[in-house]
Amino acid sequence: MFWSDGSPEHKIEKFKNPMSSDITKRIEENSYTVGVIGLGYVGIPLALGFASKGIRVIGFDIDEGKISSLSEGKSYLEHIPSDHISKHVRDGSLQPTSDFKRISEVDAVILCVPTPLDAHLEPDLSYVEATLTQIVPYLKNGQIISLESTTYPGTTTEIVQPIIESKGLKVGESLSLVYSPEREDPGNERFSSTSIPKILGGVTEKCLEEGYALYSSVFPDVIKVSSTAVAEFTKLLENIYRSVNIGLVNEMKIIASKMGVDIWEVIDAAKTKPFGFKAFYPGPGLGGHCIPIDPFYLTWKAKEYGVNTKFIELAGEINRSMPEYVVSLAMQALNRKMRSINGSKILIIGLAYKANVDDMRESPAFYLMDSLKSEGAELSYYDPHIPKIPTTREHKEWTGLESISWEEETISQFDCVIIATAHDKVNFSDLAEWSDCIVDTRNAMSEIPTAQGQVTKA
């Protein structure tokens, strides 16, 4: 804690910065350089946010393909236009590289690397550890190091700090170490990367103040908390809150279905209440990097303290079971058409984990495809945002599969169509005309005239 009286109003501060150290003076003068490591869905928007303020950014990634594309001013993320990148590459404010020796050129290092789960649903910090090991030889006095990757409380001080200090640097003296969780929401047009309030925790007060100087030069609202553990826990709470509520509504969906009640109509009715209720919606499972993963980071860490997080784990189990639930309903829908799932041609609509983006991270569509394939089905997909499946860490067997064309001759050949993601670009009225067996996990067909028994809500 950095505040002595412990009063609630002092737990979070939005503005306090003495601007005393060399780095804070350079930040105040806009004469500093930022290094962003990991040029993906988090790193690219962050790098562009700094570059748009006239700050020199060196972007690091081990993927030479990404570096080549960025160096040519080309975006590989659909929601980020290439001209946003090319502009900053041309004027030198964004410099993509795979040469980690250039860490010595920057004043601040921001880590935006993956933190997935391993096969046992336990935290995999190998990307964080490998990155730190790679950059430690090039760190220098006076730098600010910030971790933005989602992780469990204690990671910054228990994992990151010892690696940094292994070469003789001292956190809080030689350099500053902070944790500031990313809050990216790809495709969200209401909030840009830098318009979302930034949570910030520092290992020491000096770390916190220098980290505040760094982020407040780009983010208009930086919220300081009393420790890196509080900042780490905040990120987990935000996403576990969503996971638990989605788990609840997914379970309610199953109950409602058994009772012959439309859960979507129930939700629409409930959300008319002006207080005490926030609408969450069911689906085929959780997707995105955070919500399917974050709960397991906390449950793993909680065991160290002898705490069993039953409520959180139950929500996780429910959400992870949703793809199998959808498959079971697809089987029933095919049976009603006197067809077996074994040998059936099944089309998945939407590979992205949510509508109107090309982000496939942890998408439940892949788990649907895996399960259906194991039942003997022949799988294809259609996604206007993902023309071809690139290599992924978890689902390499689907690499190279291409989206089919959207035309009656093609769609009508499928025995069953499963709507996994309801993109705006998909014409679901066409689907109603072209397919006699539709499994709808997103309520996409609710306003479209269909024949009795044509659509199964899942």
For this entry, give a set of tags.
458 residues, Rossmann fold, five-stranded parallel sheet, 13 strands, 12% strand, globular
Give a structural overview:
Helix 5 (126-135) runs parallel beside helix 6 (155-165). This protein folds into 2 domains: 8-229, Rossmann fold (3-Layer(aba) Sandwich), CATH 3.40.50; 242-457, NAD(P)-binding Rossmann-like Domain (Rossmann fold, 3-Layer(aba) Sandwich), CATH 3.40.50. The termini are far apart. The protein is built from 14 helices and 13 strands. With 458 residues, the chain is an alpha/beta fold. It has helices spanning 22-28, 43-51, 64-71, 82-90, 126-135, 155-165, 205-216, 228-259, 263-270, 294-303, 310-336, 364-374, 408-411, 428-434, and strands at 33-37, 56-60, 94-97, 108-111, 144-147, 176-179, 198-202, 222-224, 345-349, 378-382, 416-419, 438-440, 455-457. The model is unreliable at 1-19 (pLDDT under 50). The strands form 2 sheets. An 8-stranded mixed beta sheet has the order 3-2-1-4-5-6-7-8, with helices on both faces. A 5-stranded parallel beta sheet has the order 10-9-11-12-13, with helices on one face.
CATH H-tier superfamily of the largest domain: NAD(P)-binding Rossmann-like Domain
Binned, the helix content reads 25-40%
| Topology, number of strands | 13
Largest sheet: 8 strands, mixed
List strands and helices in order, with pairings.
Elements: H1 22-28, E1 33-37, H2 43-51, E2 56-60, H3 64-71, H4 82-90, E3 94-97, E4 108-111, H5 126-135, E5 144-147, H6 155-165, E6 176-179, E7 198-202, H7 205-216, E8 222-224, H8 228-259, H9 263-270, H10 294-303, H11 310-336, E9 345-349, H12 364-374, E10 378-382, H13 408-411, E11 416-419, H14 428-434, E12 438-440, E13 455-457
Parallel strand pairs: 1-2, 1-4, 2-3, 4-5, 5-6, 7-8, 9-10, 9-11, 11-12, 12-13
Antiparallel strand pairs: 6-7
Helix pairs in contact: 5-6, 8-10, 8-11, 11-12
